[in-house]
């Protein structure tokens, strides 16, 4: 069951869509109503079929070619538009983030890309090992930027306002690690045409931006102050008091507004040895970015 120790977690769980026995068109229509209301939607019981998954997402935009296929790294994806997220033991050389163990801090899909993708989707195929301690089962993480900024404004006052203004007013361009696409020059925090309040902004955040920012310091005015603001954003967005955290079951499909929500993952145990034999976690998730 989903953790419901946050308002966001309760909304996601209480307003989920049941896909059982329904045609893709009906499931998408029901999901659209929830997306228009909450900007995020959980569908349960979705068939584990790449074509039906993409047909569903096609009702919300254009599923993009997965960026793993655009890199030089090894990949074994079920479809050119689907990223397979599954632990794979590294032998030599670089490795896609989709194959690593450990956790993934909250981030947004294709944070470097212009134009900004509208949606991001995750379909759990195989949840993998569940006998590990809580926090090590690959639980999914979701963060609402509007909720986070509202709470930080209340807690930190002018300190927050200074960081928010700097991150909203400084254009920045960075690349993916292994992919080359058209790059955005927007600030990390950017305005939305349909914003509902002062903190309802879009955010583009790469999970390793803390390190990557050092390589582009010459591009950023008042770099030391900007880095402080970025660290403030990263530290708070990775604070589990601010997000919903839950295990996804097989057939769970989570669709979210890529401007307004970040996604991530608690750590997973990639492998362990039993009676001298190495066993590999079979957790598998299919992710898709939608333009």
What this model shows, in words?
With 291 residues, the chain is an alpha+beta fold. The chain has helices at residues 7-14, 24-38, 50-57, 145-156, 158-169, 209-212, 223-237, and strands at 17-18, 40-44, 83-86, 104-107, 119-126, 140-144, 189-190, 202-203, 244-246, 253-257, 261-265, 271-274, 277-280, 284-290. The strands form 4 sheets. It has a 6-stranded mixed sheet. It has a 4-stranded antiparallel sheet with strand order 4-11-6-9. Strands 7-8 form a two-stranded antiparallel sheet. α2 crosses α3 and α5 (158-169) packs across α7 (223-237). The model has no long low-confidence stretch (mean pLDDT 90).
Structure annotation, total helices: 7
Distance between the termini: 31 Å
Question: Could you give the order of the helices and strands?
Answer: HEHEHEEEEHHEEHHEEEEEE
Q: What integer is the average pLDDT?
A: 90
Care to count the β-strands? 14
Query: Uncertain runs with pLDDT below 50, 5 residues or more?
Result: none
| Rg computed from alpha carbons, rounded to a whole number of angstroms | 19 Å
State the shape.
globular
Please list the strands of the largest sheet in the order they lie side by side: 1-2-10-5-14-3
Approximate strand percentage: 15-25%
Largest sheet geometry: 6 strands, mixed
SSE class: alpha+beta
**Secondary structure: helix percent:** 25-40%
């Amino acid at each position: 069951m989903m953790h419901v120790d946050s308002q966001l977690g309760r909304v996601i769980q209480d307003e989920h869509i049941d896909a059982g026995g329904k045609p893709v068109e009906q499931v998408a229509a029901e999901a659209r109503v929830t997306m228009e209301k909450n900007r995020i939607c959980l569908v349960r019981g979705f068939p584990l079929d790449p074509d039906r998954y993409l047909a569903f997402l096609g009702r919300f935009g254009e599923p993009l070619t997965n960026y793993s296929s655009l890199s030089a790294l090894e990949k074994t994806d079920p479809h050119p538009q689907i990223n397979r997220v599954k632990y794979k033991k590294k032998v030599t050389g670089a490795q896609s983030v989709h194959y690593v163990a450990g956790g993934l801090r909250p981030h947004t899909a294709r944070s470097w890309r212009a134009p900004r993708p509208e949606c991001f989707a995750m379909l759990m195929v195989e949840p993998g090992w569940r006998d590990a301690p809580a926090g090590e089962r690959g639980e999914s993480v979701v963060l609402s930027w509007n909720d986070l900024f509202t709470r930080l404004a209340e807690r930190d006052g002018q300190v927050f306002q200074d960081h928010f203004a700097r991150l909203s007013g400084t254009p920045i361009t960075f690349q993916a690690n292994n992919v080359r696409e058209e790059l955005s020059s927007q600030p990390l925090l950017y305005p939305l045409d349909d914003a509902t309040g002062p903190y309802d902004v879009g955010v583009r955040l790469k999970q390793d931006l803390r390190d990557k920012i050092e390589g582009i310091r010459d591009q950023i005015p008042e770099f030391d102050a900007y880095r402080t603001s970025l660290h403030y954003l990263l530290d708070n967005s990775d604070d589990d008091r601010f997000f919903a955290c839950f295990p996804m079951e097989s057939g769970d499909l989570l669709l979210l507004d890529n401007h307004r929500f970040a996604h991530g993952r608690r750590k997973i145990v990639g492998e362990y040895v039993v009676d001298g034999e190495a066993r590999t976690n079979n957790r598998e998730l299919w992710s898709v970015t939608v333009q």
